[in-house]
Known about the structure:
nucleotide-binding; cell membrane; Glutamine ABC transporter ATP-binding protein
Amino acid sequence: MNTNNYILNVEDIHKSFGNNEVLRGVSFNVRKGDTKVFIGPSGTGKSTLLRCINQLTLPDKGRVWLHGEEVTNSGARINHFRQKIGMVFQNFFLFDHLTAVRNVEVALLKVKGMGKEEAREKALYELRQVGMEDWADHYPAELSGGQAQRVSIARALAMDPDVILFDEPTSALDPELTREVLEVMKKLAQQGMTMLVVTHEMGFACSVATEILFMENGLIAEQGSPEMLLSDPQYTRTRNFLGQLA
Ligand code: ADP
Ligand code: MG
């Protein structure tokens, strides 16, 4: 396969849990700087798809490439790819016993093997990127959900990822906190970060997505630019779904 023009290739991903066929052959390609937004009903396989991309879940069939190197079946190299494919979850997953800066630092020390001073400097730099430098010495319990999520984005950025996967990053947040997280994500997109985002925030999708992919029953049912999906009458399934959200 010619993967030259793409940063990430996802080809024919299948995944079942017992008799539950969750992903039924999902393929798409991602260019550097793309923001792809995945929408679709709950239980349709969006989280499973993101987890298959960085092999937190092993697909039954199908392959993933990053810069033309195979991520699937990569053996011990998977740890390298997991650094390059960052992930941000709905519930942050910060360490409660570590301050914000220590949460960002820990992988730099343990995974990247950086020295203490360099790791601290890098962690503070990434916290500054998400507007959280002033909160560096606070523990997760002292942060709002939006602040905690911004720390978890800083933690992903610290690995210098090629792509960041966001799985409903604002679903646990109030509207006001949602806005501050989406602002950070929008800024990252404008700076050229490549991102795959599962979200139902259609304002974000319309203003930031290079493409929206509508998933249904384990497949990409429709995909296109925000303008096309929202205005072209042929995209009835996407618009019916969006009608239910409103
Ligand atoms: P979405 O993110 O679109 O809501 P998910 O990918 O979370 O969908 O889930 C799709 C289906 O896969 C659901 O039916 C869910 O119960 C099932 N599923 C997800 N993870 C597991 C798992 N680890 N074990 C068993 N079933 C799972
Ligand atoms: Mg999900």
